[in-house]
Amino acid sequence: GVNKSARSSYSNLPALDVSLAFPQATPATSKFPPCASDYYINFDGLLTSEEQAIRKKVRECAEKELAPIVAEYWEKAEFPFQVIPKLGALNIAAGTIKGYGCPGLCITGAAVALAEIARVDVSCSSFILVHSSLAMLTIAQYGSEEQKQKYLPSMAQLKTIASWALTEPDYGSDASALRTTATKVEGGWILEGQKRWVGNSTFADLLVILARNTTTKQINAFIVKKHAPGLTATKIENKIGLRIVQNGDVLLKNVFVPDEDRVPGFKSFQDTITTLSISRLMVAWQSIGIAMGVYDMCHRYLMERKQFGAPSATFQITQQKLAQMLGNIQAMILAGWRVCNLYEDGKMTAGHASLAKGWITSRARETVALGRELLGGNGISTDFHVAK
């Protein structure tokens, strides 16, 4: 074996601060780049003054509170719980829900808010999306009046955190075939089954569980408290993406749910489709935010980084990739904005939402891949945001 005492004295020193290790470009962790990705359309010109104010306050919070710490938490695959009160104070968690202490944002305001969080960190935006556009929305759309009054006010402030459980180990895209069951007993229901990839589940105060009613054979929704006997949620380890998101395996063994915690209006898988249509639109805007953040980082980096005696941004092959990224983002924003308009007019269909999600996420993947190329070796460093 190697004689430890003979090792060089520098072998176990901590890593250099990235600003010292690579002084030629500013890392996202010290100062997040200014927005250069809203180039073609001046998006604020399409927003109301209220929507502009939402965008501004969320951007300031994300750049100040999230940007300096998310690389560290990404590396540890842990959630930064200290930011929850700061996100709660933004008053965006309930999205479009009206009443019950919720802000009642228009869909465009809610979408822009989510995009601004995703621009700095996609994992933190996923935390909001699961809590708001899935769990809260299910209670708001299909819950009883008592459930809305009991749960929504504290959820809107992020004082009560929720998750939403549809996917199972054997049923992902084939979600309507789920096996988790709900059997009627005196005073309530018994839930049996397993869920997987449930965001927020390891720390959520309550879980909205979708299960098959053994009598009607239809999909129903149930509110399950985190300390319910027979419920366990364990973290899925070894993820290479969305590392801050605490995705869990949820086991339900003889879990009793009282009658008052069955969501009464949720009666079939069609209700799942309705909820998912709104969340799909939010995922599209999450992807817009991701692409904007990547472009913003690459734009500043390539202006600062010098090779062959000139900034990297001056070379045509670099400019071609930046132009492709920037063009993608302008089209993504316009498509997402138009579908928000359709929703506000009561005309958005599941097809509209699905096309927006499918096409916009595809362009986001292309944009991020180009950004990773443009940053060279630093493209895989979370300090420079793109890999994350």
TrEMBL record:
Keyword set includes Zinc: no
Pfam families for this protein: Acyl-CoA_dh_1, Acyl-CoA_dh_M, Acyl-CoA_dh_N
Keyword Flavoprotein found: yes
An example Gene Ontology CC term for this record: peroxisome
GO biological process: fatty acid beta-oxidation
Record-annotated Acyl-CoA oxidase/dehydrogenase middle domain positions: 164-255
SUPFAM superfamilies: Acyl-CoA dehydrogenase C-terminal domain-like (SSF47203), Acyl-CoA dehydrogenase NM domain-like (SSF56645)
Protein name: Acyl-CoA oxidase
